[in-house]
């Protein structure tokens, strides 16, 4: 084997240029594959992390009909016994109730349809981190007025960036996406645009209003909004609430419609409670979002333990007219989008691999044709066909592995860096993110198993080209080869 | 007993509908220690006969018995192994593995035979001395002259300690000095080591050196003279 390796290695350098070109084509295929995969998987996991881990939950407990008909009547009781059951479950890390319903929000002469979400302020903030979206800056006509230090060109451009911001970093990302020239002015722009507000507390009658909605209604922190809608079992829901803070939500849809209030407050507004025969009050919620102790990701095997918990909970709650759904059922579109994107990404990679494999095959064809006579001599003097095949397969193997290793060495640090310093997508490119409520960053996936699988697939594809020399050598007639 | 015994050997090449009879009923015996030239005009069947003796091609009819083994009955992989242990080859040109040095080319055969490192190295050095190329041990074939390459090829042919060496036009690409060097070398090895040599040639200089001349024409043996 060592002798074959020596011959294979030296054979590679007989035609240096060709070997380098071939190895480079494998290198580029591996480079594209690893980079593309890293961005894809990074995007999926970022999406799932933002949407599932921190908003939807791995599982949701709902009333039987809620999923198909999410009306205020299809609610479930968030009872002490249910809370105890969930608290005691070793597989459940976290659970949180929400009450959601549509309503009409009005202030002065303006009114607009909105989505009211009743939450447990403390737990919800821990789970979905709402308070980090609290507006701390507001760029508007007045604040722009005060930005005399901006060149005329930028003073026009900054109008496009009007709105609420939760941090100076956000202002920076948005402005720099508009023009790099904003760079030196970020600090002063932020200083001229402060905004104040605070997060809601349990028991308070105050609300958080999404920035887009606040703009439309022309309201600010301290103003009041009147909410009007339909409550539980046909009752009328009406109430007046003071605005504690404005939220700059990344999702435009949510930013146009969302109002958060303490759960108890929402239960009063929509009358989702009953007095039980024993005098206790039953309080209702739309669903309970549950996170298991497992990790949600796009990988099929990561869903298995979550699904196991779902089935067990579902059985335990069966008699109570309740149903437990997994995140793939709740967010079917998200799951299917990721799934189809994932598959089409893999098809593209396959096509690249096949093209490169043909390139390698071309090299193999040339090399075989050149050495026909040499093969004849080697077989004459007593080298077995097996050993001859071995050297050829080794040549292809070494060329491929050189390309792959070079690609890994280059991609590994780049991808790792881009994971910790993700690229911010400009306003235009951010469209894909808008339907989900998260920031348009493009983090990569840290190198893990895919850094093994993709190179392995490439290696296998390229090694398929060695079928030709294997068959060729088996069929080669020594006397004919010598004549060549 | 003869080293090589050929009986009623026929070889017909078929290319499509056309049949080319290259060897037509050859009987021949080669004894241990011979220095024999197979001569004849171009197309007479010299290469074909040598290929059949060396088990590089299979006959249409007849047998080739080497030291008691009918090699026409061997399977392909058995034949390759048989060649490795029993037959040395020297071809017209491009004999050597281009990526191996002179020394490595000679050693390679013994590698295939699974010989120990010590045995390989001592035999290689001995052979390089014999062919007068000890100082070029680490040169690649491309760095050697045609005559030097052929001498390395002879050394390699001997490396496996074969029963005989087959050489198909070994001097065809050499000038007269290199030719006489190579012939002297082979004759010396024939005498000193009692190594059997069989060459196919139409080179008069080679014919002049031969101890036995087998003449072939149109696939028939038409003459067989013992000279020395
Ligand atoms: N593979 C083949 N297919 C068909 N015919 C062949 C093949 N090999 C050899 N022949 C024919 O067989 C005959 C003998 O050829 P061979 O090569 O043995 O002659 P030779 O004596 O070695 O000639 P030269 O001195 O030119 O090398 C020729 O007529 C040749 O055309
Ligand atoms: Mg010939």
| Number of DSSP helical runs of chain A | 20
Number of domains of chain B: 1
Q: Specify the number of helices of chain B.
A: 7
Largest sheet of chain A: 6 strands, mixed, barrel
List the bound ligands: adenosine-5'-triphosphate, magnesium ion
Low-confidence stretches of chain B: none
Q: For this structure, what is the CATH class of chain B?
A: Alpha Beta
> Helical amount among residues of chain A, as a percent range?
40-55%
Seen as an oligomer or otherwise, the chain set is heterodimer
Largest interface: A-B, 21 and 26 residues
Secondary structure tally: strands of chain B: 10
Number of strands of chain A: 16
Question: What is the mean predicted local confidence, pLDDT of chain B?
Answer: 93
- Find the structural class of chain A using helix and strand composition: alpha+beta
Distance between the termini of chain B: 20 Å
Identify the strand order in the major beta sheet of chain A: 3-4-10-7-9-8
Structural class, judged by helices and strands of chain B? alpha/beta
Radius of gyration of chain B: 17 Å
Overall helicity of chain B: 25-40%
Q: Approximately what portion of the residues of chain A adopt beta-strand conformation?
A: 15-25%
* Structural Rg of chain A: 31 Å
Task: Characterise the protein shown here.
The complex is a heterodimer of chains A (484) and B (228). Chain A is α+β, with helices and mostly antiparallel strands and 484 residues long. Chain A has a domain at 2-48 and 334-482. Helices cover 53% and strands 19% of the residues of chain A. Chain A contains 20 helices and 16 strands. Chain A has a 6-stranded mixed β-barrel with strand order 3-4-10-7-9-8, surrounded by 4 helices. In chain A, α14 runs parallel beside α18 (450-464). The longest helix of chain A is centred in the first third of the chain and has 41 residues, at 16-56. The radius of gyration of chain A is 31 Å and the shape is elongated. The mean pLDDT of chain A is 91. Chain B has 228 residues and is of the alpha/beta class. Chain B has a single domain (2-226), classed as P-loop containing nucleotide triphosphate hydrolases (Rossmann fold, 3-Layer(aba) Sandwich), CATH 3.40.50. Chain B has a 6-stranded mixed beta sheet, with helices on both faces. A 4-stranded antiparallel beta sheet of chain B has the order 2-1-4-5, with helices on one face. In chain B, α3 (102-113) packs across α4 and α3 (102-113) runs parallel beside α5 (146-159). The longest helix of chain B is centred in the last third of the chain and has 18 residues, at 176-193. Chain B starts with a strand and ends with a strand. Chain A binds chain B through residues 3, 7, 10-11, 14, 373-374, 377-385, 387, 477-479, 482, and chain B through 51, 54, 56-57, 76-77, 80-81, 83-85, 89, 91, 94-95, 97-100, 108-109, 111-113, 156, 160. Bound molecules: adenosine-5'-triphosphate and magnesium ion (MG). Magnesium ion is lined by residues 46-47, 168, 200 of chain B.
